[in-house]
Amino acid sequence: MGLDVNLKDISKSSQDHEFFTPFPAGYKKGRTKYLVIFGTVISGLGKGIVSSSLGLLLQTHGIEVAPIKFDGYLNQDAGTLNPYRHGEVFVLDDGTECDMDLGTYERFLDRNLSHYNYLTGGKVFQKVLSKERKGGYLGRDVQFIPHVTGEIKHFLRELAVRENPDIVAVEVGGTVGDIENMYFIEAIRQLMYEEGKENICFVALTYILEPKFLGEQKSKAAQLGIRSLLSLGIQPDIIACRAQNPVTDKIKEKISLYSNVPLDKVISVHDLDSIYLVPELLKKEGVDNNIINLLALNSDHKKQRLMFNRWTKFVNKLKTPKKSVTIGITGKYTALRDSYASILKALEHAGAEHNCSIQIKWIETSNIETEQDAKKCLRSTQGIIVPGGFGKRGTEGKIRCIEYVRKNKIPFLGICYGMQMAVIEFARNMCGIQDANSTEIEPKCKAPVIDVLPEQKKIEGLGGTMRLGGKNILLKKGTQVHSLYEQDTIRERFRHRYEVNPEYIDLLENKGLVFSGKAPKVEIMQTLELPGHPYFIGTQYHPEYTSRPLKPNPLFIGLVKASLEYASK
Ligand code: GLN
């Protein structure tokens, strides 16, 4: 099955025919299959989590999966998005600033992704518009169909060539029916026609309402959502029903009846305590085997048991914690938990490692003015994280909190802005530099212990302009950070414009602060610590981005351990 046209004929736009399907060099039709996940009814159903869980399950069968997320907005990447509105900006090793779902993929699949795994409407249109200026469409009027859809199919196939996986797993951002993803869904419909239905599997996520005043589940909204997808020419193979409670047989039957999907492929994905429990649930419903059968893939059964066992071990530790600690997180975006998604996940991973559940206490720092205020806010916490951030709001309160935890030997992890605040605190209170500050907060300050990176002075405009992505860091032997990582060189991810001003380093070190991690060639301080304090660590990078369930980041493991010890005193 599939498109029966000589591929060369349709790879270029032409006056002679209506097709435009450019194939990347080396593309072999049928080698890579496609799995596409759509969301219906409402956004925020956890499509990224279901997609990642499916990816993980397929991976455990020995099937190689390359995920790609499509976001309909016209931003080229997530660099300029406000985390308050959109959730955390996740940073990939190659410096791509992207949607937080890519973080979910990296954590579930335990692999690094790149800009090839992230597509936005902005990226698609930038390509189309700049190609048009160069005469790339050979005199044709440039249209959504076939040109925009053709470029989208090219992006997907490019990923297939680049990673040579068994499956490209496409997550379609937004909800079916949005204008923003309409053309993308059309591209998928064409992809199905060209690749052959046997090479593409569609999963539709839907939502089962359960209004309190009725006390029972209702399927109408789901039916309408699926119907919109059908009207776009997409017949789902599997329907995953998100719901608060397990979906009843009656509802499953209704959905099956209205959508031509066999009953065994209508599954319940109800709310669970942790996203890491979703793979088990999907496995119980047999979704992995259904996809494998639909796409005629082979499962490596031996490997499957082995790999899934590792995952189950982690999940079991998560389910049966033996202890508990409370970690405080200070921050500007305390109203929206999604802004700190990776930190929360990293704590969850480290907690499981210690068989410990983590309670989070959010600390709004704008009202903290005195030591007494800090004491009050930190009363019931056994450790704190001062996370990344931008701008002035709440910074003095954060500095007060850091002073309090430094003096009282409460475990502390300062991430990026948090490390910079720790330097300001130390300069003011231990080195006697009263005016110490960051030029981000006070551009004309007399003692800029934190200053803009030299390379950043020349840059204009926002979006992709910070010091971004994975970089190597040399760790000093004999330091706490070195013993936590047990490595001389590590690789972590950055997203910043400011740094510790090299002019103040000697002064700070003379008073006892240790810069334990440095960039290999330039004088940029990457980590700091305070000997004599049980756990006082700052990092210019974001350790949360590289933490994985089966490989928690050492700094979070260290923080949880120190907090448990503090709690037992
Ligand atoms: N605003 C600080 C900087 O640009 C910290 C950034 C961050 O925390 N990610 O250096």
Detailed description of the structure:
The structure is a single chain. The chain has 569 residues and is an alpha/beta fold. It has two domains: 7-314, Rossmann fold; 321-568, 3-Layer(aba) Sandwich (Rossmann fold). Helices cover 37% and strands 20% of the residues. It is built from 19 helices and 21 strands. It has helices at residues 7-10, 47-60, 83-86, 101-109, 121-133, 144-163, 179-195, 220-231, 249-259, 278-284, 287-294, 301-319, 341-353, 371-378, 395-407, 417-429, 480-485, 505-510, 554-567; strands at 33-39, 65-71, 90-91, 97-98, 118-120, 167-172, 200-207, 238-243, 266-270, 323-330, 356-363, 383-386, 412-415, 436-438, 447-452, 467-475, 489-496, 498-500, 514-518, 525-529, 536-539. It has a nine-stranded mixed beta sheet, with helices on both faces. It has a seven-stranded parallel beta sheet with strand order 5-2-6-1-7-8-9, with helices on both faces. A three-stranded mixed beta sheet has the order 14-15-18, covered by helices on one side. Helix 2 runs parallel beside helix 4 (101-109), helix 5 packs across helix 6 and helix 8 (220-231) runs parallel beside helix 9 (249-259). It is globular. The model has no long low-confidence stretch (mean pLDDT 93). Glutamine binds next to strand 17. Glutamine is lined by residues 388-390, 416-417, 440, 495-498.
